[in-house]
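forwarding from the other thread:

> can someone predict this with S-adenosylmethionine?

sure thing
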Amino acid sequence: MNKADFFAIFRRFRVLFYLDYIRFYLQKITRNKKNRAFKKKYPDVNLPPDYLIYESFHLDYAKYYLDGYDTAKWLVGLLGDYKKLESVTILDWGCGPGRIVRHLPKILDESCEIYGTDYNKYSIEWCRNHIDNVSFHLNSLNPPLAFQDNSFDVIYGISIFTHLSEKSHHEWIQELVRVLKKDGILLVTTHGEAFKRILSTKELEKFNKGELVIRDKVKEGHKVFGAFHPPQFTNVFFSEYVKIIDFIPGNNELVKPEQDIWVLTNVN
Ligand SMILES: C[S@@+](CC[C@H](N)C(=O)[O-])C[C@H]1O[C@@H](n2cnc3c(N)ncnc32)[C@H](O)[C@@H]1O
């Protein structure tokens, strides 16, 4: 029995959410010293409430803020390979408590309009009260978004499909395409091959057959609701709605597996 087989038992009995809450408190204790040191060193950095950081990432202030900045820089560099990032409208779909989007006003040209959306009302409320020069919007678990057709030149969603059901995959990709301008860029990440090593025996069997693996029995969209995407599935799924411009497989050789990156555009 591997670790995932063991936790699958708790999922079956619908107690995984509560176990995850215990994990949150454990992280609070184990990372307390490191997090206090960060606060002392960066007293002017506004930090979201601990649970919001944990729920969308890990409870590690330096990783949330400093690695968040590095990720924003890396993302802007990558997006810049596909679209000139001047006078563009850009949306962070599933922005959480702003780990990436909070840095964009410092990195992007002033001519860009920056938006963030999430279904977590607490994250959006925190972002609205603490992050300037980004327009934040609350959406529901299911579409629509609060935007007109063809609103954005660029949309990115970092680790959002990774927490959605199969039905939501289809609904959301169509919604993202609706609000994306013609020739716009959509960049999303998925749990690809690199994540095989954290799957249970049953899940791995399904993944190896090229089928989407869903870990449910918790609230959809939450961090413990998981979707794992064999590239065979993702290729067919995306090709139904968008054109795939690029695929960057996640690195499997790091301590933590990396997500796959898909760069997509409108088909019309
Ligand atoms: C793993 S976190 C990633 C957050 C952020 N993208 C980042 O990289 O820090 C997943 C995020 O997706 C959001 N989310 C889940 N389902 C969503 C949905 N249907 N619409 C919008 N956001 C959603 C969650 O609230 C959470 O903020």
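The domain at 70-266 is CATH 3.40.50.150 (Rossmann fold). thats all i got for now
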